[in-house]
Each structure stands twice: as structure tokens, then as C-alpha cells.
Specification:
alpha/beta; Rossmann fold; seven-stranded parallel sheet
């Protein structure tokens, strides 16, 4: 049985990814901050023998250790999906007035915590020849007004993945850009606006599954390219 840790798994893309992997017979360790929401997700997924919910904050070292311990009890680790992230203030302020304490919090959640979890997970991933998926954004590479805080954190996460891939040749490291989705965080980015035209997260998951199935070399991949390619 293949085993994954998925952060930010109580809703949105994390939940949709977990559901798809469970359907394929995977064991999954689910992370999210809110215990009730996470427990509801785990219950909806079923298969309590291979679906484990571990509520907590990914910035907490003890919680990260708990995630790895849960994966170990399931039998190891084949995949780490760093999906959890924070938008920062909403509406998002311009950089000339971006609160620096808020920026530090964004980087702690979106950059430092994923790297710390990778560091914890690498021994197990090296053993299985597994993969890391860092969920990124086009805000990491485009200059969108108002997206300086979140976008710069995702740019930093991108580069961490880029260097990690060069250092860890036995582990595949994917920077996966799912594109716009109809999620709570995306709604927070556009307060008061109608985002019903954005695709549901479930429609994006097949692109990630294709990436995992085909197992190309480490790199940055966009869901839109994977969905439209013939690779």
C-alpha cells in the first residue's frame, strides 16, 4: 500500500486529492488545523484502517513529528503533498503597506513549515524513492498587483523545491501549479466577488494524478499543461 501525507486536507484541493488517493487504495495521513473539520473529512473518506486524521499546525514541530509517526504506523511514506498555505491579510495589501508581522507569518506557513516537513520526511522518502509535491501558484512567477506577500512566499517555495530536486536525486520533487480553483482561500483573495466560474478542486486532481502516474523528472508542472498534453 502506498502512503501519503497531505497537509491542508480538510477542504479544497487537499481534500479532493486525499479522496482520489483513497479511492486508488492509498493510505493517507490528513493534516489540518481545525480538528472538527478534519474529522469530518476523514469520516467522509471512510476506510479508517488507512485514513488517519492528525489535527494541528504545520508550523509546530511536534505536530510535524506526529504526521510522520502516523505515516510510519501505516507502513512508511511514498508521497508528501505540501498543500497547506495561508493567504495573509484579506483584502491583500500592497507591498508599500504590507504588515511585516503578517508577512513573517505567511512565510512561516508557506515556506518554513513545508521545508521543515520535507526534512522530517526525507529519510522515509529516500527509502521508497518517493515524491514531494509542493503546491505552488502562478502568483509565484507573475507580478499581480496585491499579491506580493503570498506570491513571494510561493516563489520562495518554488526555489526550495528547485534546489531540493538538485540535491535529492533519488526523490522526485514536483512544484505543482493547480491554477485558479473555487476554494475558500481563493474567495478570501477576492472578497465579495463571485468566483463561481473557477473550477472545482476535484476537476484539477486528475492532472496531479497524471503527474504521479507518469513520474517525470523533478520540475515545475502546471495542471493546465498536464490536462492538455499527450505525454
Amino acid at each position: 500500500m502506498s502512503i501519503a501525507i497531505i497537509t491542508g486536507a480538510s477542504r479544497g484541493f487537499g481534500r479532493a486529492t486525499a479522496a482520489a488517493l483513497v479511492e486508488r487504495g492509498w493510505g493517507v495521513v490528513l493534516d489540518a488545523r481545525h480538528a472538527d473539520d478534519l474529522a469530518g473529512t476523514a469520516a467522509a473518506l471512510g476506510h479508517p484502517d488507512r485514513v488517519v486524521a492528525v489535527a494541528g499546525d504545520v508550523t509546530d514541530p511536534a505536530h510535524r513529528r506526529s504526521l510522520l509517526e502516523a505515516a510510519g504506523r501505516l507502513g512508511g511514506l511514498d508521497l508528501l503533498v505540501n498543500n497547506a498555505s495561508t493567504l495573509g491579510p484579506s483584502p491583500q495589501p500592497a507591498l508599500d503597506r504590507y504588515p511585516l508581522d503578517a508577512l513573517r507569518d505567511v512565510f512561516e506557513v508557506n515556506v518554513v513549515a513545508p521545508l521543515a516537513l520535507v526534512q522530517e520526511a526525507l529519510p522515509a522518502l529516500r527509502e521508497t524513492g518517493g515524491a514531494v509535491v509542493n503546491v505552488t501558484s502562478d502568483a509565484a512567477v507573475e507580478g499581480y498587483e496585491g499579491w506580493g506577500g503570498y506570491g513571494s512566499s510561493k516563489a520562495a517555495l518554488d526555489q526550495l523545491g528547485n534546489v531540493l530536486a538538485a540535491e535529492e536525486t533519488g526523490v522526485r520533487v514536483y512544484r505543482f501549479d493547480p491554477g485558479d480553483m473555487r476554494t475558500r482561500m481563493h474567495q478570501d483573495a477576492f472578497p465579495g466577488e463571485d468566483i463561481s466560474d473557477r473550477p472545482e478542486p476535484e476537476t484539477v486532481v486528475p492532472a496531479l494524478l497524471r503527474l504521479l502516474d507518469e513520474a517525470p523528472t523533478s520540475g515545475r508542472y502546471r495542471a493546465s499543461d498536464l490536462a492538455g498534453s499527450d505525454r
